[in-house]
């Protein structure tokens, strides 16, 4: 199940990265989060925690468009469903 959640999150992050209305620093952070989620050899819970930390940081950026902030909150809440085991 965790793989499915991560796959969905990566798809949303790719949508953010390809959106030209999103500031470059936000797109770069989305790319970093995607890299963390796709990293091999890390436990899903560790990936999720690292990603949520970055997403929380960028969601507080005053320059982020409202629709992008909503997508980021969506990704973060999906990642929070990954169990810590």
TrEMBL record:
<dbReference type="Pfam" id="PF03685">
    <property type="entry name" value="UPF0147"/>
</dbReference>
<comment type="similarity">
    <text>Belongs to the UPF0147 family.</text>
</comment>
<dbReference type="InterPro" id="IPR023130">
    <property type="entry name" value="Ta0600-like_sf"/>
</dbReference>
<protein>
    <recommendedName>
        <fullName>UPF0147 protein Mthe_1454</fullName>
    </recommendedName>
</protein>
<dbReference type="InterPro" id="IPR005354">
    <property type="entry name" value="UPF0147"/>
</dbReference>
């Amino acid at each position: 199940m965790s793989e499915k959640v991560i796959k969905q999150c990566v798809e949303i992050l790719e949508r953010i990265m390809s959106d030209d209305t999103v500031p470059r620093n936000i797109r770069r952070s989305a790319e970093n989060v995607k890299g963390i989620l796709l990293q091999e050899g890390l436990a899903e819970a560790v990936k999720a925690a690292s990603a949520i930390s970055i997403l929380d940081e960028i969601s507080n950026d005053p320059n982020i468009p409202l629709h992008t902030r909503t997508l980021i909150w969506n990704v973060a809440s999906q990642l929070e469903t990954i169990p810590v085991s």
